[in-house]
Amino acid sequence: MTGLRLEIDFDKIGHNARQLVERAAVRNVSVTAVTKAMLGSTELARVLCTAGAVALGDSRIENIERLRAAGVGRPTLLLRSPMMSQVDRVVASGSMSVNTEPAVLSALATAARRAGRVHDVMLMVELGDLREGVMPDQLHATVQHVVGLPALRLQGIGANLACRNGIEPSVENMGDLSDMVDSVEAAFGIEIEIVSGGNSANVDWALGTTAIGRINNLRLGESILLGREPLHRRALPGLHTDAFRLVAEVIESKRKPTMPWGRAGQNSFGEMPRSEDRGDIWQTILAVGRQDCDSDDLTAPPGVAVLAASSDHLVVETRDRMSPGDEIRFEPGYSALLRSMTSPFVTKVGLPAEA
Ligand SMILES: *Cc1c(COP(=O)(O)O)cnc(C)c1O
Q1: Pocket test for ligand 1, best of 13, 77, 163, 228 (most atoms within 8 A of CB)
Q2: Domain covering 244-351, topology
Q3: Residue 221 CB-density burial (10 A; 0-12 exposed, 13-18 middle, 19+ buried)
Q4: Taking burial as the number of CB atoms within 10 A of a residue's CB, which of 66, 154, 234, 335 is the most buried?
């Protein structure tokens, strides 16, 4: 067993996905399950499909292509607006894509015509979080543009909140989204099939509201994988929050002072940390670093406190001396999970080798 590893419990992930799919279904909301935190893992995709996800979403075309190649039996959604340089790949993947830019839509239409295909599109609307989205007063003009491109099919309108500025879904912004969908349908005489209200930050709102309006889809990643809603990182009732564990190995453990000595400049990450003198402590070093995880996003077990991290060392305080070879298990948050999934130095346990 290699020292640095991410232990993954797919039964717990499957349970979380099934719970969320069932709770959303009560409100006629379908779930597009998001695989990007796990590099479009086909094993994860299999579990999510079994749990009842109607579609799979990922932000990277490479991950979408992996899912398609594995023959997942669900539609896929590219969650990030296509790069101009990748429109042919996006069309060839057979995936729906989210879009906001007329130039990209035109390029997708040209690529689709060239390939003899029709490409499905979800237009994203800005609702105040200030990441992706067409400004509301530009929505009709953008719909007009899509409708004028026969190689494109406008399948959905969506919005994304909470990712940049932490803006929460509310009766107001979700109501605005529903109103915009109604107004597009009335103005263009078309039907918008998918109204995708948001990501995991929408779970509490969607499951609690009496005004779901036109919203009939959510795109869920973190809430399935970590069992939490991301606005306050509260555990969702009945869901597992421990499907992932990052396990790291002790390489040094010594009695050391809490105060460094010598003249201090910047550390290797341009920071000038300040220490508080608490006398001598058991300082333990683990063989894991910022290359492998986000050290600020690890929850340590009782009796262990994270003090600092550099590229390859995680410095923690422990109650007692530990022995080299001992292991400590951390609960990764979303950011730590993303980074440990993408680090080739972290062995993934529970994940079958991909073809
Ligand atoms: C990542 C992403 C999601 C999923 O977000 P979670 O918070 O993990 O549920 C949904 N929509 C878009 C556009 C995304 O980029």
Answers
A1: 163
A2: Elongation Factor Tu (Ef-tu); domain 3 (2.40.30)
A3: buried
A4: 154
